[in-house]
Amino acid sequence: AHLDRIAAVDEKVNAFLHVDTEGALAAARAVDERRASGGELGPLAGVPLALKDVFTTEGVPTTCGSKILEGWKPPYDATLTRRLKEAGVVVLGKTNMDEFAMGSSTENSAYGPTGNPWDLTRIPGGSGGGSSAALAAFEAPLAIGTDTGGSIRQPAAVTGTVGVKPTYGAVSRYGLVAFSSSLDQGGPCARTVLDAALLHEAIAGHDPLDSTSIDAPVPAVVEAARAGATGDLRGVRVGVVKEFSGEGYQAGVMQRFTESVELLRELGAEVVELSCPSFTYAMPAYYLIAPSEASSNLARFDAMRYGLRVGDDGTRSAEEVTALTREAGFGAEVKRRIMLGTYALSSGYYDAYYGQAQKVRTLITRDFEAAFGRVDVLVSPTTPTTAFPIGERADDPLAMYLADLCTIPSNLAGNAAMSLPCGLAPEDGLPVGLQIIAPAMADDRLYRVGAAVE
Ligand code: GLN
């Protein structure tokens, strides 16, 4: 049924870069056989899923939305891919994304933009716009995204779906093509908080193949979602961060957010306003740290090891072929980030830019620590505005970067955060996202509070 739905609507939505019909049907049949033979089946056995094209899938194309990886079929599965398969999840295919996950609108994909199913002339968010659009268009009931600065939560917010960035290190990055290794985190996308929790439990957990993977039990997120669904939030302390409001925030977004805070109070939560002054500097710190790490990570696309190779006619040196390939294979935003990052890391500038940004990162982490000394979770709008029209911010990187104003601090600090729908903005009828933030390894709190207000 989901393959039929994709065939019917994806020409318009463009959520998928690759539909793996054969693989999906084989996985579904395997679950059927297991059921027939009386084998044990987990809660997600046979459930279809859309996978962001940044996770490796053995024998199935993985492009990261880039021309430089066109046609590349990885020889191995990411740990996340393997876990999905072991859970009996049916991977329908790979979803569209901003090239190498750099963007906030999915317009930076080398394979054309994805439309927001609420209004196809608008962006579905980014970088994981394909995954969230697939959910909103009912092409898949579950999806996977990655969140380096907001790429799970921001698309969830603007498509009216749920997205969770787990605690950094909770979900293995082995086989997740690296953008910014100290920030990247895979996570669940779904249409309900409980669905997200079930997927969270399937993908999280220690992996010896990822040196930053946390070796500790996964928080009981499914249990928390079930507990939250009773709607009782007595004893829960919620902080409203002052810095996540003001200029640039759409009126209808703030209206729905204020109503959500009111609802939290009605459910018994204690709400306090607090200030995290360093959050003001999260955006500039992120746009030094993320491009710096990217400039190093993307050095591996050298025309020798993977995908595209341009100008290799026997007359050119390896360096020339590498340069020609990177010139032809990378898009404008990727080149911009590589240049920014290389500059920020170069000797003489390192202390002024990268070093300074790392200090700001510490201050942001301390602001979170102070806040979580007073409250259990923080809440904010997920994005300052609803989905903007395709093309509107395409030529203005700074305007584009603002879409992640509320999501970036959690990546810098490595804590857990969720976006879930909290109604439609009255002025444009488009979905608004509520963000909930919890301390590292307290992901269960997101699900308890999220399920209560859902
Ligand atoms: N929009 C942010 C960026 O362009 C975040 C991307 C992400 O989370 N992958 O870097």
Automatic annotation (TrEMBL):
Taxonomy, superkingdom: Bacteria
Catalytic activity field: L-glutamyl-tRNA(Gln) + L-glutamine + ATP + H2O = L-glutaminyl-tRNA(Gln) + L-glutamate + ADP + phosphate + H(+)
Domain (Amidase) ranges: 1-446
Broad enzyme group: ligase
PROSITE patterns: AMIDASES
Record keyword Protein biosynthesis present: yes
Keyword Amino-acid biosynthesis (UniProt): no
Active site: K52, S127, S151
Role noted for this protein: Allows the formation of correctly charged Gln-tRNA(Gln) through the transamidation of misacylated Glu-tRNA(Gln) in organisms which lack glutaminyl-tRNA synthetase. The reaction takes place in the presence of glutamine and ATP through an activated gamma-phospho-Glu-tRNA(Gln).
Subunit field text: Heterotrimer of A, B and C subunits.
Protein name: Glutamyl-tRNA(Gln) amidotransferase subunit A
Organism: Streptomyces thermolineatus
